[in-house]
Amino acid sequence: MKKTQNMIFISILVAQALVLYIVETMIPVPFITPGAKLGLANIITVVSLYSLSLADTFLVVILRIILSTLLVGSLSSFFFSLSGGILSLLVMFILKKFGKENVSIIGVSVMGSVFHNIGQILVASITVQNIRIIAYLPVLMIAGIGTGIFVGITSKFLLVHLKKLQFTKIN
Predict the structure, then answer these.
(1) For the chain, which domains are there?
(2) pTM for the predicted model, two decimal places
(3) Which of 73, 84, 125, 149 could bridge to 119 as Cys pair (CB 3.0-4.6 Å)?
């Protein structure tokens, strides 16, 4: 029974992340930086990281990336999302695991956002075969810090209410 509940919870998280990603593609982003997004689907990644195992969270991220690419993406968006998503998840997991006393969920989210941008810049520099694209990183970092704070606050709020509903045990 527990395995079935876990599968259902993972499916719900993937569906929510997918919906948030699709909605985000419809929002005109008022950022000066091209390519910067709010990262709404990352709310679900953070919720998953604090609710499930690393393997289950990895599954949520990978399924969201594959499905979003199939629905509204392209091959290049797949590689950008994959690199950013995996690097972001690994950094957030390490911070959550080893920095429990020193790093809040908001800090974990901000670092996830920063490393998501780093992963995407690395893929961009490989794609265009020009390392100078890294000069764009400081601009993305500023946007990433702001969106990371928003994602962290939202995730913290959701986790409190999921715990009240007994949908999840907070790690």
Answers:
(1) 2-164 (1.10.1760.20)
(2) 0.89
(3) 84
